[in-house]
Amino acid sequence: MTINRRDFLKTAAVTTGGSVFAASGIAATSAAGKTPKVELKISLQEGKAPGASLNEQFDFMEQHGVVGFEPGGGNLQNRVKEIKDALSGRNIKVSAICAGFKGFILAENEAVRREFFDTMKVIIAAAGEIGSTGVIMVPAFNSQKPCKPHTQDTRNFLVEQLRTLGDYAVTHNTTVILEPLNRGEAFYLRQVADAASICRDANHHGVRCMGDFWHMTHEETSDKGAFLSAGEYLQHVHIASRKCRSMPGEDGEADNYIDGFRGLKMLGYDKYVSFECGLQSKDRAATLIAALKLLRDQWKAAKS
Amino acid sequence: MTINRRDFLKTAAVTTGGSVFAASGIAATSAAGKTPKVELKISLQEGKAPGASLNEQFDFMEQHGVVGFEPGGGNLQNRVKEIKDALSGRNIKVSAICAGFKGFILAENEAVRREFFDTMKVIIAAAGEIGSTGVIMVPAFNSQKPCKPHTQDTRNFLVEQLRTLGDYAVTHNTTVILEPLNRGEAFYLRQVADAASICRDANHHGVRCMGDFWHMTHEETSDKGAFLSAGEYLQHVHIASRKCRSMPGEDGEADNYIDGFRGLKMLGYDKYVSFECGLQSKDRAATLIAALKLLRDQWKAAKS
């Protein structure tokens, strides 16, 4: 695997540029067995911070040290100027783009696959314009049928299709990010190690993966093990409370992320940990401020 | 997941006994974040050591500090006395039992599933008599057809069937051990994290999993990540050279197990690392002695 990684880095070194591909640096760090000082870069999906407008949300985020913003992919192409303007002069960058595509890549029906590629390409191009780390995608939700059968042939097909999508992403200086979901939403891809293995098969610096603590709670036996398996391919992380998918901390003691944070520190993970969650409390601002403190305290407590 | 583990340990504490279930102790160790002194317990499959008879092989193994023996499951019920006699008074114990069953658990055809259960039960009973840590099984080889489709329903079916098998194994003071193989042999179960997730779903102390460095070379992006995901469920490990599945060391620099050994040390893994491999060299004894030294040197070098 070391050899694979070296080949990967060689390829990456020749063809990539821009911090969006810095994830490949993770491999070198972890391969060397070092645990460097890694900062926790927190991101919020749109609407998680209080505020009616983007500017009000960004003001709040800056005041509380949130450095990443994760918009949805829907209609993103018509929001590029709005987002650029709202971010201009701020200490906040776009993290990943959350889905927003139509169709799905593993559809039996070619027209449905074409719809996926057509809508993804529009989102990828917009993502590149606003400097996003990548566009999150799911190979197949349980509700999306007819879906190709879960076989080696389908896996090979997926890898080939991802390379094509990865080529397009790289020309726009961004990536596509595979997200494993829990079995209730998407049985096809449930575990971070499987997503990372697909990335390794694709061997394409525009094809990455992520982990979502909410889904991982249901599918992973070890948060640390899952993130170490993601390794150099880890491009994004989602976080939520672990019982009700609310703000971290709203589920009390269940909201322990320390083991996963250890894994991220061991990797030298330099991308974002982004809130994808609901809210139980009526006080968004106070709950979010408490969540930020909880994550920063647990990040400090995570000795790898 | 900590909560799951506590529940698991509670159950295990009530119902289990005997070192065969000591794996549950691993959870406590790793949960505490400690890295205790862990010894490398090496095991050999039958025929890996030079010697025409079991006694000749065991003499060689004892001379070189090999403490585990992994027989095949075929005809094991008729070899219980032979194996017990040959092991009597020696510092060698039976590790896992390598397969030997007929049929397969995910067969569409009920008669083929019954054949699997009937033959597994005979092997499990014999395994218990000789104090084995567990009987290795594969849910479905690629060649075994017709096989149930790779769906959530099949996964649920597998978990239910494993509980039944686990009950039988526990009454014989042993376990069943799920082995992930590379995609060329068994696409259904390829990754250690998936096998561990099946064990967690089964939530049965008689249902365990393993990792085989040979298959892991092809399917895992991180040996350490894979073993950390196996966690408390890890009951056995197979090892071979990483290019040709020969004796460790016969593939030169490719035969690096240090990252995986780090994971095993982090877990406090107290079961066996067992040779399942061929031989390129004409000198079995010298190649085996060199392999034992290589693994012991890499185990020492594995700082977690």
Describe what you observe in this structure:
Chain A has 304 residues and is of the alpha/beta class. The first copy, chain A, has one domain: Divalent-metal-dependent TIM barrel enzymes (TIM Barrel), CATH 3.20.20.150. Chain A has helices spanning 2-15, 23-31, 54-63, 80-87, 110-129, 152-171, 192-202, 213-219, 223-230, 258-267, 284-301; strands at residues 41-45, 68-70, 93-94, 96-98, 134-137, 176-178, 207-212, 234-239, 272-275. Chain A has a 9-stranded parallel beta sheet. In chain A, helix 6 crosses helix 7 (192-202) and helix 7 packs parallel to helix 9. Chain A is globular and about 50 Å long. The first copy, chain A, starts with a helix and ends with a helix. Mean pLDDT of chain A is 91; it is low at 1-18 and 22-32. Chain A binds chain B through residues 1-3, 33, 142, 149-152, 155, 183, 187, 190-194, 196-197, 199-200, 217, 219-231, 233, 254, 256, 263, 303, and chain B through 1-3, 33, 142, 149-152, 155, 183, 187, 190-194, 196-197, 199-200, 217, 219-231, 233, 254, 256, 263, 303.
